[in-house]
Amino acid sequence: MADRRLEELVDTAEINGLITAYCRNIDLNNPDGVAALFADDAVIDYGQSFPPRMVGPAALAAALRESLGNVDATSHHCSNAQIWFDGPDDAHGITYLYAWHRFAGRPDFHLWAQYHDRYRKVPDVGWRFAFRSIRMYGSESVDDRNFDMIGRHAGRAPEGTDAPQVH
């Protein structure tokens, strides 16, 4: 029991590093670097403003090349990460997101959201995203209808997650 708890502490730190690497590579406009953080069969769902349910790193990199090419600068900030382990090589989590985007000739775009993730430990590679979706609280200067919105429900986890219930 104590050994597994220690392993989960190390794994949590590695998953938090994965989350941070995602933000850094997005902000560096490095689609291939972002894609390298995903398992080969990963499913990515960023809402209606992106291709629906992309599968695999190559599809994600192609979508990011197109979308990030229209952005002058971004700054993604993840916090309040909660990670739950489903086994020694599988976990899921929710991470809060604030993201700023600068576009030429139009107002900056601000986004407040959550990432809903599944993580998998890939042999000889380490932790990778197996699933990533975004659920939005709100935004400025963008049409919210292009995203899956989060409702506010005291006492229960966001719909569609396996997160433990809040008591």
Comma- or semicolon-separated keywords:
167 residues, alpha/beta, Nuclear Transport Factor 2, Chain: A, 7-stranded mixed β-sheet, disordered C terminus
How would you characterize this protein structure?
Strands 1, 2, 3, 4, 5, 6 and 7 form a seven-stranded mixed beta sheet that branches. The chain has 167 residues and is an alpha/beta fold. The protein has a single domain (2-149), classed as Nuclear Transport Factor 2, Chain: A (Roll). Strand 5 and strand 6 form a beta hairpin. Helix content is 26%, strand content 41%. The model is unreliable at 154-159 and 163-167 (pLDDT under 50). It contains three helices and seven strands, in the order ααββαβββββ.
Query: And the CATH topology?
Result: Nuclear Transport Factor 2, Chain: A
Q: Distance between the terminal alpha carbons, to the nearest Å?
A: 25 Å
Helix count, DSSP H or I runs of 4 or more residues? 3
The CATH architecture designation is Roll
Give a quick account of the main beta sheet: strands, pairing sense, barrel closure: 7 strands, mixed
Which CATH class is shown?
Answer: Alpha Beta
Low-confidence runs: 154-159, 163-167
Average per-residue pLDDT, rounded, comes to 85
Quaternary structure state of the chains depicted: single chain
Give the gist of this structure.
This protein is of the alpha/beta class and 167 residues long. The chain contains 3 helices and 7 strands; from the N terminus they run ααββαβββββ.
Spell out the blueprint of helices and strands.
Elements: H1 2-27, H2 31-35, E1 38-45, E2 54-55, H3 57-68, E3 73-87, E4 90-102, E5 109-122, E6 126-140, E7 148-149
Parallel strand pairs: 1-6, 6-7
Antiparallel strand pairs: 1-2, 3-4, 4-5, 5-6
